[in-house]
Write a structure and sequence with these properties.
Strand content: 15-25%
Oligomer: single chain
CATH superfamily of the largest domain: Band 7 domain
Helix content: 40-55%
CATH architecture of the largest domain: 2-Layer Sandwich
Length: 306
């Protein structure tokens, strides 16, 4: 595909063009006046020089046509010039300009920053789970020639390519990190945004568009599996919490045994240690509060209960 790149157009300053137009008008009126002879007796005007009259009228017509060549370029706006169907350059600097009327076609385009907010689309993630996802893309046109001449409709092109990049991103990541083989959307949101921005940028280079930012605005399981996945997340959370509780309880039991041993408070054999560890773990890990039982006759009767 023959891609066009933006270049500056060669045009005339508008105020200089206005001065030329006024000069043509004045000269044309003067020639027309000189070519007409007024007879005071007959009280009518007669043409003295048809050639001078023709030149004067031609200058007036040319001045009238030149009025159609004036154009304004506003801040953050560009105008693409087409000369007889060929690209002749672009105007990017704000100002007042004059171009050749009829031969040059002007097509305005905004260079302002814009947002594209996608609809929520349903797509399968890396593990095949249906999810709903949406994004917002902040972009602007940096090459007016590419935007207007390389693609048919650059506004629609931005929307379609952004959603296509979003679908590709969803297929590369999983919603949550249930499987270590897959990267999750929750692992590194900033990296996800950078990946999405780079993918969208690669697709929009042909349209002369710069992607300033791309971020996810919505991410959720599809309604048909939302309840099942919620229960799965709750179960995983309970398991993770239990692991943390058991890990902490083991540490406390170890500290207790080491303290008893170092301070020589009581001598415990392996059986007593096992019973003590069992009792402490039950007391620390159990969800409900434990009821203590005080055995006041164990030592007097020669029986050990721990």
């Amino acid at each position: 595909m023959n891609q066009l790149n933006e270049r500056s157009a060669q045009v005339l300053n508008g105020f200089l063009g206005l001065g030329i137009t006024l000069g043509l008008t004045s000269l044309g009126l003067l020639l027309v006046r000189q070519s007409v002879l007024t007879d005071p007796e007959l009280n009518f005007d007669a043409v003295q020089s048809p050639i001078v009259l023709g030149i004067g009228l031609g200058l007036l017509i040319l001045a009238g046509l030149s009025l159609l060549g004036f154009t304004l370029v506003e801040p953050n706006q560009a105008r693409v010039l087409l000369l007889l169907g060929s690209y002749a350059g672009s105007l990017r600097s704000p100002g007042f300009y004059w171009v050749i009327p009829y031969l040059v076609q002007l097509r305005p385009i905004s260079l302002r920053v814009r947002n594209f907010a996608s609809d929520r689309i349903k797509v399968n993630d890396a593990q095949g789970s249906p999810i709903e996802i949406a994004t917002v893309v902040v972009w602007r046109v940096t090459d007016s020639a590419k935007a207007l001449l390389n693609v048919n409709d650059f506004l629609g092109f931005v929307g379609i390519q952004s959603e296509a990049a979003l679908r590709t991103l969803a297929n590369r990541y999983s919603y949550d990190s249930f499987d270590e083989r897959y990267q999750s959307f929750r692992d590194d949101p900033d990296q996800i945004s950078r990946t999405l921005q780079e993918d969208v940028q690669a697709r929009l280079d042909v349209a002369g568009v710069e992607v300033l930012e791309a971020r996810l605005t919505y991410l959720a399981y599809a309604p048909e599996i939302a309840q099942s996945m919620l229960r799965r997340q709750q179960a995983l959370a309970v398991v993770a919490a239990r692991e943390r509780i058991v890990e902490g309880a083991l540490g406390m039991v170890e500290i207790a045994l080491n303290a008893l041993s170092n301070k020589d408070l009581v001598q415990l054999n392996e059986e007593r240690k096992a019973a003590m560890v069992n009792n402490l773990l039950v007391a620390l890990v159990a969800e409900n509060g434990m009821q203590p039982i005080v055995n006041t006759g164990s030592f007097a009767q020669g029986q050990d209960r721990f």
